[in-house]
Prior knowledge:
Blueprint: H1 6-33, H2 49-52, H3 60-67, H4 70-100, H5 107-117, H6 122-135, H7 142-150, H8 153-164, H9 168-176, H10 181-192, H11 194-209, H12 213-218, H13 227-232, H14 242-262, H15 264-273
Helix pairs in contact: 1-14, 3-14, 4-7, 4-8, 4-11, 5-8, 8-11, 11-14, 11-15
Amino acid sequence: MDRITPRQALRMVVIAATALCFLMPLYWLTISALRPEADIFRFLNPFGPWTLIPNQLTADNIVGLWSGSFSRAIVNSIVVALVTVIAGLMVCASAAFALAVIEFPGRGVVFTTMIVSFLIPFDAIAVPLYSIMRGFNLQNSYAGLVLPGIGNGLAVFLLRQFFQGIPKELREAAMVDGMGWFRIFWSIYLPLSRPALVSAALIMFIFQWQAYLWPLLIAPSNDMKVAAVALAQFSSAYNVSFGLIFAGAAFLSLIPMLIFVFFQQYFTSSVAATGSKE
């Protein structure tokens, strides 16, 4: 067995220390969610062993979190995110296929416009978009929450780059066999693009899961609040429930983290393939 050189050992120590620095905020968030609210900031100054090692654990914050309206908000977030992913993949994959494969007049202009669209901050278009949605009476509805997330420019860009890496000989052979564009898209490109589809789904899921401004504008009613909005409302001008905030933040961080860890191999492989050429 090869011996580890001092340089390799030092590199491993640096990598472990860096990983620990990134994990420390998540660890502190988790233990704060399990501490009594009076102990959350009690041991921060001066810094000591009880800052990172809780001397008392309780489930009161978790019980309080789920006994209120937060559970309904979580359900709303899950429904909105899942519907956005399913509908968004259909729209974004179709648009990416057209931009990558089908020759049509103005394709370059459409692609440039799409690139510019996801460079514009969403906050800049939130109010005009709200006016449009209000004109269609989509306030406090799942449709109003879902529609802005379906056409994701970054997802289209990622899928288009991946589609361009698929050899054109496959579609040429399919066209010789009499396949149309839809069948080529459905039978050839989609099965070969699983990593890119998973990455696009992750992008759209995170976009909806962490959205705050748009749900606050379009769905302010108690029945339609999403988790990010419900979490922010644990803080008011007269009272801040830090225990509930930490518990809710820990849970909201856990779901996308588990999803990303599970699909990590697809995400990294699709990002690596976005620069490939025919």
